[in-house]
Amino acid sequence: MLYDTIVGIATLQGMSAINVVRISGIDAIAIVNKIFKGKDLSTVSSHTVHYGHIIDGNTIIDEVLVSVFFEPKTFTGENVVEISTHGGYLIPNKIVELLVKNGCRIAENGEFSKRAFLNGRIDLSQAESIMDVISAQTETQLRLANRGLHGDVKALVGELQTTILDIIAKIEVNIDYPEYDDATVMTDNILRPDIKKIVSRLSVILHNSETGKVIREGIKTVILGKPNVGKSSLLNSLLKEDKAIVTEISGTTRDLVEGDWNLGGVILNLVDTAGIRNTDDAVEKIGIIKAKKALSEADLVLLVLDQSRSLTTEDIDLLTLTKNKPRIIVGNKIDLGKHIDIKLEKTIDVSAKNSTGLDQLEAEVKRLFIDESLLKENQLMLANARHIGKIGEAKTALEDALKACENHFPVDIIEIDIRKAWEVLGEITGETGNEVLIHALFSRFCLGK
Question: Does 250 score more than 50 pLDDT?
Fold first, then answer.
């Protein structure tokens, strides 16, 4: 596979000024030379750009700029050529067709990044960060993704693995030279303190990563309440647009209405739902079923109550329904007076109609989900669910090693769990990964990346 020369369109196809066709592989320059009328690309210097035309026989396909990069100092570690064409659908696809006829193969999803990984240009955590950079919606997400792309995650994992290897080395010395230390001294005085330090470090990383994961993935938030309490008005106020239809008629919202709220760098994936109540209306019933399903999948519930009226049976039912979910009680319509008495928990007073009190709602969301001290200190936070899961697995393996120490197991048995922790951490960067994992990860990438 790595001996193939691959081609893909690296830019979004459509009506645009420029499209980029990317070629990578041992024969990239030779193949492009066959269809390029301009300088002989085999004679030019690396990292240079050349004007000319792409031709099919005697027919000019497009006027282009061709960028040439010689291995190994390229993204993939191979010879790379990038053809900057005019935008549109026809031209770049015609050029790809010509390149395939002359010896290229269409790249698989993520194959350029996969080659960069396999050729040692990036590690697996950096490869995953590429997609995080592309999909970033906020500056905070982008900053977090760039830290992964620049190798901060790799450095963290390397540091942890080095510390674990030091422990393994102590065990190996004990096994090879049993007179070095007896088993009790080895486990109680040498291994246990070192293992505890790493477990403590991993616990801090996992705690900080709760904020990182929220920044990367957002908070799936459902707006819930009985009909006509102002759920849709709240959605519109938060999004600053008329996303949902608002009327005085009870039960206007029949289906889910969604939108993203950028909360200081954290995305709340808001879902406005149909008002939950007993009804004979068949369409409204479907909306209520969808609302309850959205509730079951939500990370956060904004339970909206009408403060201008007293609590109703429907309100109490909803308070009961959401009691085991992370929630914020939003007391809407404060502009009409406060006639509701909720002693269960803190209520955020808002007027969705006048867009007042939303700053308090924002502060409460941050209090529940975001450790802002980490953002201010610009600390490294893991955000990728796979990375966080592997840190958790490593912590569990080391905790098993601690239990084995406490029970005075032979050191070679204790070493099994410690080695497992080292191997699991290596799966974050791909050092100890397997082909199935690598294929699955890169298949999620877009073409041309």
Answer: no
Burial 357-389 (b: 16+ CB within 10 A, else e): bbeebbebbbeebbbeebbeeeebbbbbeebbe
Q: For the CA atoms of 12, 14, 17, 21, what is the dihedral angle to 10 degrees?
A: 50
pLDDT digits (tens, 9 = 90+) for 119-138: 999 988 998 888 888 888 88
* Residue bearing tokens 């209405």: 257
Locus of tokens 């004679």 = 43
- Mapped onto helix, strand or coil, the DSSP state of residue 242 is coil
Cβ–Cβ contacts within 10 Å for residue 25, how many? 25
CB 430 within 8 A of CB 440: no
| CB 171, CB 381: distance < 8 Å | no
Q: What is the pTM of this model?
A: 0.75
Report the Cα–Cα distance between both ends of the chain, in Å, rounded. Answer: 17
Which two three-digit tokens encode residue 440? 């699955």
**All domains in the chain, ordered by first residue:** 6-123 (3.30.1360.120), 129-214+381-442 (1.20.120.430), 227-369 (3.40.50.300)
Can you give the pLDDT at residue 54?
Answer: 96
Count CA within 13 A, CB hemisphere, residue 96.
21
Does residue 391 carry a pLDDT above 50?
A: yes
